[in-house]
Amino acid sequence: MQTAADAPGDPLARVGPNAITRVGEALDGLYGRATTYAVFADAGLTSYLEAWPREMVAEGAVAGLNRALHAHLPETGFRRVAREAGGRTGDYLLAHRIPKPVQALLRPAPAWLASRVLLAAIARNAWTFAGSGRFDAAAGRPCVVTIAGCPLCREIAADHPVCDTYTGTFERLFRELVHPQAAATETACQAAGAKACRFEIRW
Question: 68 Cβ partners below 8 Å, 6+ apart?
Fold first, then answer.
């Protein structure tokens, strides 16, 4: 039976290039270029190793890269690389996408308020990372993010969550802008049979 994680998604959907660039950087740093090449070759994306993408990329390419990463590395290695890629994505967003005046306002604000503002900003820009997936978020303790039709776990079957790139990004942003002890966890994943991928951020 086909699940939402197996669905092909929208062939025209695009996501931001961080989904490829930061995975490549994390692989290079943790495993070296030979492993990076093998993973990207399996995904049919070796052309990106000559020059990282600067424009939006096909959602299917990102899904294929996460499948290749999951297939090539043991679980601990996969999760380490994906988390590192997510953290690097968060760093990029802090450096280039979230205005410095906004960051200056959020950091000293009460966590309950900062979390609501940050979640609203993430929701407005969800199309840049969730692609054709259906994004939803609710502020609270914990904050909860769900993505149905999640591109990261498409066509992956696992007994554990595999969307660690998103988890790493959410955690980095919340630690920097909401609370230094914020921790993000994926509590349900379509790869493991859930109807949607669910993330909780606590502090």
Answer: 39, 40, 42, 43
Q: What is the pLDDT of residues 4-59, one digit of tens each?
A: 344 456 778 999 999 999 999 999 999 999 999 999 999 999 999 999 999 999 99
The β-bridge relationship of strands 197-202 and 143-148 is antiparallel
What pLDDT, on the 0 to 100 scale, is given for residue 3?
35
Q: Indicate the pTM of the whole model.
A: 0.93
Identify any residues that bridge with 138 across adjacent strands, giving them in sequence order.
144
Question: Which option is the CATH number for 4-202: 3.10.129.10, 3.40.190.10, 3.30.565.10, 3.90.1520.10?
Answer: 3.90.1520.10
Bridge partner list, 57: 15
183-188/197-202 β-pairing:
antiparallel
Q: Where are the domains of the chain?
A: 4-202
Q: Return the H-helix or E-strand segment holding 186.
A: strand 183-188
